[in-house]
Amino acid sequence: MAPNFGNSGCWKKISSLLKEIDVSIDSIDQIPQLLHTYEREDHDKRMQVEKEYHEKIISIEDMLKKTQDTTKQIIREKNLQAAQQISLLDQIIQQSKLFIAEKTKNQEQQLFLLVESLIDQLSELNNQIDLLNNKLNELEIIFKQQIVFLHGKQKPAWYNLIAKMKHYFLIRKQSAKLIEEYQMDIKPYQMKLLQLTNQRNALLNDKNQLQKQHKKQLETFLMPFYQEIDSNSLKKQKLTKELQHDIDVLHWNIQKIQKELTDFEQNKTLFVQEKMRNVLYKRNYLKMVRDSSDYKGAIAELEMIEYLKRLPNNYFVFNDITLYSYEYHYYHGKPLKSAQIDHLVLSSKGIFIIEVKYWSKKFTESKDYQNPYEQVERASTLCWFLLKDDFKNIKTRAVLAYKETIPQKDLTSCVKTLQIPYINQYITGNYFQDILTKHQLNELVNYFNGKMR
Description:
By secondary structure, the chain is of the alpha/beta class.
């Protein structure tokens, strides 16, 4: 069995990726098994999450129903309690109003008794005043009739200017006498009228003062009862507002639970995703790894390693080597300073640089890839450049191993193209002669051990 150094580069990448989800496996074959396990766990977890979701829905619905029933009962009790308190306050207010009405009526009756005599006197005075006014009106009417008669006397036809003047002065004298007699006649009545009017005004003033005094006393006495009515009315308003606030809070609690139920029903997908996040992440991550080019590359490289292990023990196998040069070399006019090698087989026949590809026919036909022949030829050329000064006649041979299909190579290419199972036969065949001594082999083994990643 050939000594084997290092491991598949793609396998290292796969192992590194799996560490991101805390997964460690021993072989590439475990990935499909592990993915199957995750898919089964995904199914079981999804069923469990669905169950949790429905249980949560039922729990919220039960809570909503209990809250609604409790709220209805509380509202009934609060309405009844508030109605009793408001009814009691209404009774107290009504009693206060009845007391005020009764007290006001009694006070008015007392006031009426007090002013009854004044009213009688006022009535008598008003009668007398009316009689005097009538008498004065009669005297005024008689006076006006006398004046009219005096001024309406027939004047003679021979009425001349002198007669007119005499007649005018005579009328004036008679009118003045009538006015004097009239004023003498009404003066006693006017004096009596003034006296009666003053008496009536005095009585009215006494009546008004008495009414004001009684009104003020009544208002002072009834003030506490009016304040009590206002206070009880405010209590009614406060009770009503508190009741409405309590009812609003209870309804708000119901609306909150209803919203929670609605949101929970609408966000079922988010709920499931949240619960499934870790399982889905691992499953999808593993799918991503499985579908990656590194996964197929690892399968092919590991298969290649298993075949290369079967080489005789005088063959040395190095896996995932990176070569660096301190200066630029050129391959077909392109700069060349580093190269990555999937597998390097060292033997007395020389060095075999092996590039492994696991490409599908569809991918090969897409032409969306780096030229694999150029890739392995560059690696082989750089290896030769690095060794040619220390190892005379050193030979590096480029080999492209594939698992499914590989693109058509250029007719000028020197790359050997074989399926993986035929690589050992090519390396160990009688196509090549020994060119390296045992000592040189040991030196090269040490050299390539230093290039291992």
